[in-house]
Amino acid sequence: MKTKKIVMRSCVVTREKLPKNELLRIVRTKEGNVIVDVTGKMNGRGAYIKKDLSVLEKAKNSKILDKHLEISVPESIYEEIKNIINID
User: Fold this and answer.
1) If you average pLDDT over residues 38-63, what whole number do you get?
2) CB 9 within 8 A of CB 48
């Protein structure tokens, strides 16, 4: 049987290469909205962040998501990410 390839992505904060399922994707759509993409398949410019509260705080303080997505990320998105991390 064929083994399934593990897709690796880089966290924009820590720059670690991790399996895609250990990261959370944040997307900027063509309309300029910022959305948390739990499926990992939405269209738009994406940035991956490690599912860790300390990494989320570092991203929030350094505004690294703003730089990667080229748009100001609203506070509500950070809260949504925090809730998703707490569930996992």
Assistant:
1) 95
2) yes
